Amino acid sequence: MRLLKLVPDNTNIGFVRLRHWAFGLTALLTVLACAAVGVKGLNMGVDFVGGLMIEAKFPKPAELDKVRGTVDRLGVGEGSLQQFGDPNTVSIRLPLPASNDEGATNAVVKKVQTAIAAENPGVTFPRYDTVSGKVSGELIQTGVLAVMLAVIGIAIFSWLRYEWQFGVSTFVAIMHDVLMTLGFFAITQLEFDLNIVAAVLTIVGYSINDKMVIDDRIRENMRKYRQMDMRGLIDLSVNETLPRTVMTSVTVMLALAALLIWGGHVLRGFTSAMMLGIVVGTYSSIYVSSSLLISLGLKPQAMDKTAKKAPGKMSGAERVGPKN
Amino acid sequence: MLDFPRWKIWTICLSLALGVLLAIPSLMPESTAARIGLGGMPRINLGLDLSGGSHLLLEADTADVARQRIALMEEQVRTELNRGNPRIAIGDISTQNGRLSFFVRQPAQVDGAVERLRTLTQPVGVTGDRDWNVAVVDSTRIVVTPTESGLANAVNSAMEVATEVVRKRIDELGTREPTIIRQGAERIVVQVPGLQDPAALKALLGKTAKLEFKLVDVTADPAEVAQGRAPAGSQVLPYPTGTGGVIAVQRRAIINGDQLTDAKQGYDQQTNEPVVIITFNSEGGRRFARVTQENAGKPFAIILDNSVISAPNINEPILGGSARISGSFTVASANELAIALRSGKLPVALKVIEERTVGPQLGADSIRAGAIASIIAAVAVMVFMLLTYGRFGFYSDLAVTINIFVILGVMALLNATLTLPGIAGFVLTIGTAVDANVLINERIREERRRGRGVAQAVELGYKEASRTIFEANVTHAIAGLIMLVLGSGPVKGFAVVLLLGIATSVFTAVVFTRMMVAIWLRRNRPSEIHI
């Protein structure tokens, strides 16, 4: 049986040669993503802005205008409606009532549910969330903190394990991934909630996984080919790890596609964020972080210095076997 | 590489088998597990988003605790200085700005007063702080200020009691397996699976249930009372509840909820209306009997959380130590009040600051969708691995399959909670679990291309890839750990699965497949491999 090979043997793509174009494109996309976040803003869910969210599931595709009219007539504040996953499901978001009484919130939920049920027989309300402004503020803070800490922690790790250039390039690449994801959410206006923070952290984790594999190979090759030109070395390393990069991206995409199609509507935003993140992360591993190493002036001889400085740490990574 | 000692093989197989075994009870309905004798085995908890139910985050009103403490301190100061010997006359008491201040009428007694006030303060913690600071200003004015550690201590003990009260109330509702956990200094998380009516739960938890019986001040001028003014020693309270009407009652309570021994819902024999029947302890009963004897014919007020429920006339002395509270109840609201009274007074008002409720149907749909997605993801990834790496792919597939079970088994063992994002983490783990094998297999391909022999290529493949796998997974785990520590709710559920997945997949993907490959190579000694 002939085995499947996604990347032919001895592939040799000149990634580094294209790096200036790639940097330009990356910069442009990043600026666009930031602009999208700045101009359109994120469609923050109740997790982050506070308020109440009622999910309504209609027996047939919902007529948003009619439902909106029903909610507006109740005088419970300005509602925002969104189709959610499938055309039958609508999420209705409302501000929390001004009075801080628990009864008031429940009363609003009841009122909305009764009014909608009166006009749409067969409608069900599978869930609702209410989050006070205080909690939502904390959730934003811890969310931002978590992502920042993860990025910084990982950058420090790769700085300690390799060279400072790796730390910087990893940091830049991950920030790029995070910004692109945010831009995606700003453009699509998909709801940005706690689950998405988990998705962003996963993207960070996955993307770093990818970069570590390439960085590790670059380091290995730096030791092996001490006299090699850095461009050639990075091209070689990226090409050598390319089959793995493509394979793993494909398997993860397969799994995520299953989740997107069959995983239920609640996880749809989460899954699409991750799928985008995988693409962006793979791109940034190849283009942003590896190529950046050259611009940061990494030299093959850098490894000798580190090896002398901490022989114990590096000894396990020393290559055995005959040289090619 | 080829020499895998027998003990190692056994250890690996046994530990994996154990992991798989632990997963089995969680994969079948509870009743089935019990029938075949696995009822006592640990199971995976389903999060509320999968089982349906309500998640409430309650926050204590710390300002309320501070207010109560100041009021209590004022009482203590008055008693201590009034009753002590010599009596110290004080005046101009104020409790503004969160502190107690008053002046001592005779300047010579200031030192004595301070001395006696110090006995009212308590040391807090190990730092030697006291819960109140007593200071003299302007030579005759004494200011008693609560210290931060004193307040923190008070909030802490109030929260301990509050958590217990909340637990009792929820247990009384008869709900199944509620989770009640204190979170941070002033919060309580309540999770009740499968609850149909979260509104009732919230209403119940929102009640302080401070019950008092007070005599109605019949001497008060109704016009003055309507203006909100009451004679000295009396106070104005809303009555009937919620109508805007008011009534004047004496400040001193005849009896309060602390003396209750029981409360239950019953019916008024004449009108057949729902009522709450309460029973006092012997001291409360005696006191109640005495006051009702002395005040026969006059009205008294039954006050719950500072609003009057009813103000019946005392027709005859109530001697039996039990009383009836009536006042336009429904059966449900009478029952709710009875539960609240039975479980005791909340020492601090609690507010719901977050609520998430998921219907049972949505939960069931989510589980089904998650299971289907997981199976399809696993099959797709496995077929793909098989097509790409042949025999080596098959070993990876075995590893992934075992890995799926081991994750579930470890989760059951740790009594971890599976949430909807947890399922997503699970599916993602299936996708990334093969990464380690991809790394190894690609490495073996590479070494073969360089012309190394089969055994050496395999050995080098595992060896070189292991380091990379380690580095990549440590960094991935950093992200997971941060999610676990900082994340709340869904993020945490996701992080648990992700971290477990990282740990188990490295084991199955590296150690287990290596063992399989070693056994195969040793038996067959192939001169060529398809990879």
Automatic annotation (TrEMBL), chain A:
Its main location: membrane. The keyword Protein transport applies. It comes from the Bacteria. It is a multi-pass membrane protein. InterPro entries: SecD/SecF_arch_bac (IPR022813), SecD/SecF_bac (IPR022645), SecD/SecF_CS (IPR022646), SecD_SecF_C (IPR048634), SecD_SecF_C_bact (IPR055344), SecF_bac (IPR005665). It holds the Pfam family SecD_SecF_C. Keywords: Cell membrane, Membrane, Protein transport, Translocation, Transmembrane, Transmembrane helix, Transport. The chain crosses the membrane at residues 21-39, 139-160, 167-188, 194-214, 246-267, 273-298. Gene3D superfamilies: Multidrug efflux transporter AcrB transmembrane domain. It is found in: Cell membrane. Residues 116-297 form the Protein export membrane protein SecD/SecF C-terminal domain. Belongs to the SecD/SecF family. SecF subfamily. Part of the Sec protein translocase complex. Interacts with the SecYEG preprotein conducting channel. SecDF uses the proton motive force (PMF) to complete protein translocation after the ATP-dependent function of SecA. Forms a complex with SecD. Part of the essential Sec protein translocation apparatus which comprises SecA, SecYEG and auxiliary proteins SecDF-YajC and YidC. This is Protein-export membrane protein SecF. It comes from Sphingomonas naphthae.
Automatic annotation (TrEMBL), chain B:
Residues 159-217 form the Protein translocase subunit SecDF P1 domain. It comes from the Bacteria. Residues 235-348 form the SecDF P1 head subdomain domain. Keywords: Cell membrane, Membrane, Protein transport, Translocation, Transmembrane, Transmembrane helix, Transport. Its main location: membrane. The keyword Transport applies. The chain crosses the membrane at residues 367-387, 394-414, 420-440, 469-488, 494-521. It holds the Pfam family Sec_GG. InterPro entries: SecD (IPR005791), SecD/SecF_arch_bac (IPR022813), SecD/SecF_CS (IPR022646), SecD_1st (IPR048631), SecD_SecF_C (IPR048634), SecD_SecF_C_bact (IPR055344), SecDF_P1_head (IPR054384). It is found in: Cell membrane. Residues 350-520 form the Protein export membrane protein SecD/SecF C-terminal domain. Signal peptide: none annotated. Part of the Sec protein translocase complex. Interacts with the SecYEG preprotein conducting channel. SecDF uses the proton motive force (PMF) to complete protein translocation after the ATP-dependent function of SecA. This is Protein translocase subunit SecD.
